[in-house]
Amino acid sequence: MPFEVTRRRLLALVPLLSGRRVVVAGDFVLDRFVYGHPRRVSREAPVVILRFTHEDLLPGGAGNAAANVRSLGGEPSVVGIVGADDDGRALRRALSERGIDDRGLADEDGYRTPAKTRILGGAPSGNKQQIVRYDVETDPAAPASAGRAIERAAEAARGAAGAMLSDYGYGAIGPEAVGAVRRALPAGAPISVDSRHRLRHYAGVDAATPNEEELEEIAGARLESDTALDRAAAALRSEMGCANLLVTRGSRGMALYSGERDGAPRRIPVHGGDQVADVTGAGDTVLAAFSLALAAGASPLEAALLADFAGGIAVMKMGTAVVTREELMTAIDGDRVLLS
Fold first, then answer.
1. Mean pLDDT of 282-308
2. What is the rounded radius of gyration, in angstroms, for the C-alpha atoms of the chain?
3. Nearest partner of 69 among 9, 138, 23, 116, judged by Cα
4. DSSP per-residue codes, 116-169
5. 3-class state of residue 323 by DSSP
6. At 336, phi and psi to the nearest 5?
7. What integer pLDDT is reported at residue 277 of this predicted model?
8. Architecture in CATH for domain 7-28+61-112+140-334
9. 68 vs 310: CA distance, rounded Å
10. What is the DSSP string of 65-128?
11. Whose CA is closest to 276, among 317, 243, 239?
């Protein structure tokens, strides 16, 4: 059954995303995709030899969230830490190519830019499959560096329509940023967060976007039924004092927990069905669309539906993908499941 949100209303919201300035603070990652065509099995080891064709260097982590804000028409003010290394310079270029000002990123001595390299192979005209991934990681940023990042985030928050915090565990942002950013934002501007392992500590944010596995980690148990999911979500909302919790569930769509309808959960089917090419960065897309929509004045359900459409579009693309306003409007206009 369609939700009570009309297609006309959702289409009218998309242009309102344009020009909204939001702070995107957190862990910026370089996503590297190396592509090749299989040639033969190696004589050195039982592995396939790929003939290199090309590589893509894309913003990942908080960088992907910022890229999605930009492609949806918003204006991301990025705040984070990178290393004074080749990967850091490549990440800055990738952001600049997308029209994102990188001056909020600070080079920190002794910090290595996190980079995730995925090697993909396949026939020239066929789909490419990820063969292996290796990560170049770093010790978390020093507390002094993180403290300076919080100061920059608070400075960027002045006059912004909202803020999103993207915590991948590399130490560039933490729960202590919430208070500083809140004090600097205009009254009513929302703060959203996505955190791999510390979500429950981000007390006082307006919205959070965990996936189901992250909610299970917090609950300390498998959530094998909707009832168990609802209990865990209610407990987390209460602990965080968080008005809106949007839980992403892969092929099962999303579950929204908010103050609407007396807090009853809203279960949102996934947009696009099983047409999945690559789930890389889909959570960043959801965070960006949900947060930007809330900053533009959308209700929690309206923002969740926009995020559902955006996430469904992103997973139909290879690599760390972004979603454009035009793609979002086309998906909404063509929907015959979610909207009345």
1. 96
2. 20
3. 23
4. EEEEEE--TTS--EEEEEEEE--PPPPHHHHHHHHHHHHHHHTT-SEEEEEE-S
5. coil
6. -130, 20
7. 58
8. 3-Layer(aba) Sandwich (3.40)
9. 9
10. HHHHHHHTT-EEEEEEEEESSHHHHHHHHHHHHTT---TTEEEETTPPPPEEEEEEE--TTS--
11. 317
Least Cα distance to 295 among 3, 77, 98 occurs for 77
In this predicted model, what pLDDT tens digit does every residue of 122-165 receive, in sequence order? 988 778 889 999 999 888 888 888 899 999 999 999 999 999 99
Annotation says 284 is catalytic: yes
Please state, in angstroms and rounded to a whole number, the distance separating the CA atoms of residues 143 and 155.
Answer: 18
pTM for the model: 0.94
d(CA 313, CA 165): 23
Dump pLDDT digits (tens) for 45-86. Answer: 999 999 999 999 999 999 999 999 999 999 999 999 999 999
And the tokens for 129?
Answer: 């499959």
Q: Which of 194, 206, 284, 308 is catalytic?
A: 284
Residue with tokens 């995020």: 307
